[in-house]
Each structure stands twice: as C-alpha cells, then as structure tokens.
Input
Amino acid sequence: QVQLVESGGGRVQAGGSARLSCAASVENIFAVNDMGWYRQAPGKQRELVALITNRYDTHYAGSVEGRFTISRDDARTTVYLQMNSVEPEDAGLYYCNVALSVWSGGDVRELASWGQGIQVTVSS
Output
C-alpha cells in the first residue's frame, strides 16, 4: 500500500510563491512512473495542474504554464510543485498523484495513489 504525505501550501499572498511536496512511502519499489499535481476549486471538478513523466517530460495546464514548475526526486520518491506569481484562481485543494511499479509476489504490480489533499488559499 502506498502512503502519500503532502506538505506546503497554506495561505499565499497573490503574486507570491509556494512550494508543495508529496512524498511516497511504499516497500519494494520497482519503478517510479508518472507523478502529478491536480487541484479542485470549490464547485469545480478536479483538474490536472502539472505532470512529470519518468523521462522527466513535463506537461502543464495552460493557466499555470510559465508560473508553476513540477519536479521530482526519485531517490526520495517525492514530487514537488513550485508555484510562482500565484493568482487568486490558483486557490483550491491540491492533490498529488503518483504511479508506481512495485514487486509483489514475484511479479511487478502497478499502483496509482492519491494524496489526501492540501489546501492553498490565495489572499489579495
């Protein structure tokens, strides 16, 4: 079972910066695959913010392109989201999603897990 621990976030001044972290804890890791950040604003559906593949290719929502940077540290099984020039529209509950391959019973099993969500509030 994968445990994801998110940190960072909180209240951010508009125009300011914040950094989110999501650390995965699981035994018998074979590979760390795609890692991403999603967010959900009140009354809206969860949307992809940024994704980083196991080849370090990155993809961003148009609304955050040029302001947010996703990165990863596979040795720590951690994904980061650096948020710069934060706007009021960036407020919401941010979730990390991590896809892992783990050894299980002699086979490789694919797991995808969600973090518990971390709140980002933007004050103007």
In short: The chain is about 0% helix and 60% strand. The chain has a mean pLDDT of 96. The radius of gyration is 15 Å.
